[in-house]
Amino acid sequence: MKPKKKINPKIFGRILSSLYHYYPVRVPVTFLCILFSSVIATIPSIFIQKIIAVIEKWQPTKDWANAGKEIFPLIMILIALYVLSIIATVVYTQMMATITQGYLCKLRNSMFNGMQKLPIRYFDTNKHGDIMSHYTNDTDTLREMVSQSFPALIRSIAIIVGVLFIMLYYSVWMTLVLILGVIAMFFVSGKVGGGSARFFMRQQQSIGKEEGFIQEMMNGQKVVKVFHHEEQCENDFNALNDALFEDSFKAHAYANILGPIIGNIGNIIYVLIAVVGGLFLVLNTPNLSLSGMAFSISILVPFLNMTKQFTGNINQATQQINAIVMGLAGAERVFALMDEVAETDEGYVTLVNVEVAADGTLTETDRHTGKWAWKHPHQDGHLTYTPLQGEVHMNQVDFAYEEGKTVLHDVSVHAMPGQKIAFVGATGAGKTTITNLLNRFYDIADGKIRYDGININKIKKADLRRSMGIVLQETNLFTGTVMENIRYGNLNATDEECKNAAKLAGADDFITRLPEGYNTMLSGNGSNLSQGQRQLLAIARAAVADPPVMIMDEATSSIDTRTEAIVQRGMDKLMEGRTVFVIAHRLSTVMNSDVIMVLDHGHVIEQGSHDELIAKKGTYYQLYTGAFELE
């Protein structure tokens, strides 16, 4: 059995406070308009009582002319109040439309802006489809609650309170009879509504899981078909869908039976009030009321109308439980995403453009000079500028993605400016982990990493990553032109610089053969390009960024041998004068590296140049000669 999940009551208050924060004028005005129209809805009973009292007054003399003179002003006042109520209703419905859509827009902006600041760990540990569900299903349930359920609930509560005071004004005894019936209503509402709340929360979680699964299957459709896993995927989806069905069924079953139960209890109360009122009239029972009026037919008739109105609005309020609980469940997930802890950055060393004088003095400038330096403020107030050279040292680094499961053990890497460092080893040996630590996608558990002699923990993450170009094994292209996708590496790059980067990467040849060349639109992660072509664009994107340090994580893994030769020439030009870290399974791509590091289960077991490692006839030699393979 699934654990019970209850809605956090603080979520409701947070929604109201955030609505007021975004709309400090419109929300109060809307609230007042709803209250005004609700008060007007309670007034007809008072007028009915007065009209019946007038009829009773003139009944003995049959002077209907004078009766009409007294009734006519009452009717005109009631009509005027109804007109004002209509105006108030139009105002608040229009304002609610603006408030609701504006509120959701601001929430989505807050979610997305916050999501951009989350660490990579969050996206590695949460399904992307589930994250997307926050922007679709969860915000949609919140929309329905804010635009419809909130106003309906406020209106119902206002009418209930108003009618209750009018009832007490006319007859305390009759009101007490009504309250006894209402207690039964609340008892049933609490029992049924509580069950509904738990299952609606579980429903939102099940929707997120199902969407996450669908997103994974869509991304991996080719893999599914290649390995004939269609039937297994169907079974897995059916299990998730059945869980969603079960939660949704129970949630709506509770919610749907609540209305009829409350409605019928209301009918029973109505009959009870009629019987008790009739007995009071027959027995001439003394009336206890705030008005001091004697109990009569002029009180009983509007009282019956108010009873129907009272129980009807209680029913109306309980009917909102469905949307409110779903909205609160969605809001809880939305706020949970907004409350995720952003990636921390304690760095204070920044990357700046500098001009280099003849004597080597560095001067900071706002102009792009192509020369960079680390701006290092010190506690005594003075600044020092360290040239950006790309010298990287990892000293005895330990790291674990999960506590107690160490991935890297005492790893040391030393890369001098312009050197090419290659990492080889089986999948899971820790190659990509090292590059993730250089970018500070994750922070080390022990040891030191220094960049140009500066501890990378002191460097602002944005500046650190700006100084490093990276080409990943998986290429992500965005909806836009080929030119825009290349320019993603440097938004200030000119068209000519983008084209030069494409030529350097060997991508210019196939780009010029596209229907519209560099202006060809790409969509669906570049689905109209081959895997190799997409990889070439990723390399061009890194080239246009022109960083002093390059990370190539299986950069040529998706390129055929002929294309690889073209790309390799471009990459060799790209690597000139830069510090380069290369991860590759193809040993042919790392043979010309200055240092090759062989990793095994997070340990560096060999390092040296290609010739040195071949001479040792160790693990690298066996890999190179095919004695055993990387996997």
Written account of the structure:
α15 crosses α17 (531-545). The chain is elongated and about 125 Å long. Among the domains are: 10-338, ABC transporter transmembrane region fold; 350-386, no CATH class; 476-546, Rossmann fold, CATH 3.40.50.300. The protein is built from 20 helices and 16 strands. Mean pLDDT is 83; it is low at 627-631. The longest helix has 54 residues, at 230-283. The chain has a six-stranded mixed β-sheet with strand order 10-13-14-7-15-16, with helices on both faces. Strands 2-1-3-4 form a four-stranded antiparallel β-sheet. It is an alpha/beta fold. Helix content is 60%, strand content 14%.
Which key phrases capture this entry?
disordered C terminus; 20 helices; Rossmann fold; 4-stranded antiparallel sheet; 631 residues; ABC transporter transmembrane region fold
